[in-house]
């Protein structure tokens, strides 16, 4: 991570992207196999790759071996999730680019404005945040760095972009609460950075949105307590793609051509009809409350859950007969 975060912006294309691209591609491939190994018997080399290179003595039983493999898989994935978060300025020192210095920092130097001089020195006011000292001026430089890094991650190389986007979607389906919770924040950041660009419509509308909806409908146990975070991602993608932006986006003069992908995905689910989707969209358009939006989406998806439960009960009854 220091290699990434300390790299001068001018060297991103020549030094960062060529190194990071194959690394990200290999990381996603390896973690995908680690969480969902291929079916059938594996050769020793294949098993070592899937298990992260773990070699243990023959004296260990299979249960303890699986425990070790699971621990290694989780620790490696969590480390990579943390790295991705740092690269997108969601944790670590780069995340300080987006904090409110007045609220989260402690002023330790600078006067802001010299009395009677008419000189504005607000950029020189020093704030301590943890062990870091920032001024508004240095924070702007840090933010420019964060924005340039995000642009390199998402637009400099198609292989790098695809590997990061695929990891973001994949990690939401892997049974680890730590990874899922933090990946949801990454998904929100990527949505904020890419929703205006039609090139990301397929990722947002067909992959990220579908993964979020599937999580809400299937309710896996490792996502317990994250329903509102998932709803936030689903809500944001729907508003920005289907309606071309949120109310605040449009007030700021930002919009994009609408896309029907999220709506069509919902219409493909059992239990949903054009009328139920229209009712949900009416709330999304008429209310400015995030809670109202999330409640409307959740109530709509409950129709899918109820339909699945009914179908499952009917299938079980038929099998019993």
UniProtKB/TrEMBL annotation:
Transmembrane segments: none annotated. Pfam families: Exportin-5. Residues 2-307 form the Exportin-5 C-terminal domain. This is Exportin-5 C-terminal domain-containing protein.
């Amino acid at each position: 991570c220091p290699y990434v975060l300390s790299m001068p912006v001018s060297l991103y294309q020549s030094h960062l992207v060529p190194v990071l691209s194959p690394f990200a591609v290999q990381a996603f491939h390896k973690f995908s196999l680690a969480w969902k190994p291929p079916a059938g018997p594996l050769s020793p080399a294949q098993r070592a790759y899937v298990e992260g290179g773990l070699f243990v003595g023959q004296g260990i039983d299979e249960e303890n071996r699986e425990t070790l493999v699971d621990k290694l898989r989780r620790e490696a994935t969590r480390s990579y999730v943390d790295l991705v978060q740092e690269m997108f300025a969601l944790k670590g020192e780069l995340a300080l680019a987006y904090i409110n210095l007045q609220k989260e920092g402690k002023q330790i130097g600078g006067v802001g404005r010299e009395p009677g001089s008419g000189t504005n020195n607000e950029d020189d006011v020093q704030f301590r945040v943890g062990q870091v000292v920032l001024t508004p001026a240095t924070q702007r430089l840090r933010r420019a760095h964060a924005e340039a890094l995000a642009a390199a991650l998402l637009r400099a190389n198609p292989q790098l972009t695809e590997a990061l986007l695929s990891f973001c979607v994949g990690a939401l389906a892997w049974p680890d609460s730590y990874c899922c919770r933090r990946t949801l924040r990454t998904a929100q950041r990527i949505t904020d950075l890419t929703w205006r660009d039609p090139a990301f419509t397929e990722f947002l509308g067909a992959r990220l949105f579908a993964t979020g909806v599937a999580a809400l409908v299937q309710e896996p146990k490792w996502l317990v307590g994250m329903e509102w975070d998932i709803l936030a991602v689903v809500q944001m993608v729907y508003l920005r793609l289907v309606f071309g932006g949120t109310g605040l986006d449009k007030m700021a003069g930002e919009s994009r051509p609408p896309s029907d992908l999220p709506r069509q995905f919902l219409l493909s689910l059992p239990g949903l009809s054009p009328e139920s989707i229209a009712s949900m969209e009416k709330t999304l358009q008429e209310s400015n409350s995030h809670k109202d939006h999330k409640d409307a989406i959740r109530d709509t998806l409950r129709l899918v859950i109820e339909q699945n439960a009914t179908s499952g009960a009917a299938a079980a009854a038929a099998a019993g007969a």
